[in-house]
Amino acid sequence: MQVGNETTHGMLWPQGAAATHMTNYARFVASGYDAVKQIFPGALVIVHVDNCHDNRQFRWNFDGLLANGGKFDVIGASAYPTTVKGIGWRAATAACLHTMNDLAARYGKPVMLAEVGVPWNHPEGKAIVADLIAKVRRVDHGKGIGAFYWEPQAYDWKGYPMGAFDRGGRPTAIMDAFLP
Question: What pTM, to 2 d.p., does this model score?
Fold first, then answer.
C-alpha cells in the first residue's frame, strides 16, 4: 500500500512540506502506515519518491523520515530515464541501479520502481524499460521486488507522451519488456 505518490517534497502542504516541516511529513507518513497496518496488518507500506537517478534526494528524504519517526516497509522510486536532463537514458538507468542498491543497503528495505515510463513512440522504448526491469532484478541481495509502468494505456493523452499504447489504442513493443 502506497502512502502518498512521489512524496519527494512531502505531502499535505504547507504543513507537510518536507523542506520546512520534515517532522510533520514524517508524522503524516507514520499515520498512513499505522492506518494501513490497522486494517491490513500484513500489507507492505511503500513510500514513493521521484527521480530514481538522484540518490542524494532519496537519502535526504528517507534520512529525514527516519530521524522524525516515519515508517515504511518498501522504498518506491519513479524512473523516467528519457526525461533526465544532461545525461542519456543508459546513464540514468545506471544511476537508478546505484540508488536502489544504496537504499537497500542503507535502510535494509526492499526497493521497487513504482513508476517507469518512456514516450510511447520512442525507438528504444522497449530496450529502456527492459533495462530498468533488469536493473531491479540486479539489486543486491534480492532486494529489488518489482517494476510498474505508470499509465501504459496513455498515448499522448492531453500531451502526456509516456504511455505504452499507440494512438490506435494498441500496446506497443514497450509492453513486451514485461514478458518473461
Answer: 0.94
